[in-house]
Amino acid sequence: MAYALATERLQDTTRRGGSESTWKALRRAAGRNLRAHAFLFGALVCFALFTWYPMIREIIMSFQRVHRGQTTWVGLGNYRQVAADPEFWQAWRNTLEFTGLALVFGFAAPFAVAIVVNEFRHAQGYLRILVYLPVMLPPVAGILLFKYFMDPGFGLFNEALHILHLPKSQWLASKSSSMPSLVVVSTWGNMGTATLVYLAALQGIPGDLYEAAELDGCSVLQRIRHVTVPQTRLILSLMAMLQIVATMQMFTEAFVLTGGGPEGSTTTVVYLLYNYAFNYNKFNTAAALGVIMLLVLACFSAIYIVLERRGSED
To answer: What one-character DSSP code corresponds to residue 90?
Structure first.
């Protein structure tokens, strides 16, 4: 009888101790979850306040018009006003031209630089810093530096062309060369991030694939075509989509270097939006143009998602 009572008390103590330890574990887990959700809630509040609210407010403003302090609902009136503006269509032509040139040069250059840097074995850390250095500089400072280099009179680039006995260029002062000049400036300032992304993707490719390609007698270009590009296809497609979205919103280069000129040849959609809002004082028209840009970029993103899904299914 005494043995049975002792066993019962021991089991009861064990149950109480186990329940207490379980309760403490639950309290610790609840505390961790509460802190995590608190941080998440703060991020959601900031995201809603500084991203979603301005976006929703812009959409509402695009259907309104303010006259002498009175706000009226005009439906699609602002959109019709934007579409009837000749600057609107010229801005889209300039934006698509810049995006096309940026994809040809600005998309290929970081990938080529990443391939070259990946071939080095001992100086990769230094080269990564060197490539990423333009991104760390203040954007306006780097752009103003190029404005000095591209001066048609005493600029460094024209001096270099003169030394090489080549004809000088008007660079930013000519309608034919102003947009390619902006592409050069934008590529130099933004290629560092893309280069590091490509370099990380290249370092994830198994070396056995390159060794097998070398044994098969593949040249450097053939190895890039048959090994490097297929192994980094997903990264390349994603970066292409991100570059389209980013280049179609180009503003700083045109604002600092050319002011939209000469003769409106570098006025992009975002620069025209800036003019509507802050130079023409037409905030509702600027909101309508912003919504149009949002819809165009959303279409590009939707096309990318559909193509990626089809590619993954195949």
So the answer is: H
Kindly give the parts of the chain with pLDDT less than 50.
1-6, 10, 13-14
How big is the chain, counted in residues?
314
Asked if 187 contacts 109 with a C-beta cutoff of 8 angstroms, the reply is: yes
Residues 259-295: tens digit of each pLDDT: 888 888 899 999 999 999 999 888 899 999 999 999 9
For residue 231, give the nearest of 247, 208, 249, 250 by alpha carbon.
Answer: 208
pTM of the model: 0.82
Tokens of residue 31, six digits: 């505390």
Q: Which of 99, 151, 133, 135 is nearest to 257 (CA)?
A: 151
CA separation for the pair 92, 282 (Å, rounded): 19
Q: Residue 239 has which token pair?
A: 């970066």
Residue position matching structure tokens 């301005």: 54
| Assigned token pair, 182 | 């902006």
The tally of CA atoms less than 13 A away on the side-chain side of residue 100 is 7
Distance of CA 85 to the CA centre of its chain: 29
Residue 65: beta bridge partners?
72
Type of residue found at 192: G
Whose structure tokens read 């080549």?
Answer: 166
Q: Is 276 in contact with 208 (CB distance < 8 Å)?
A: no
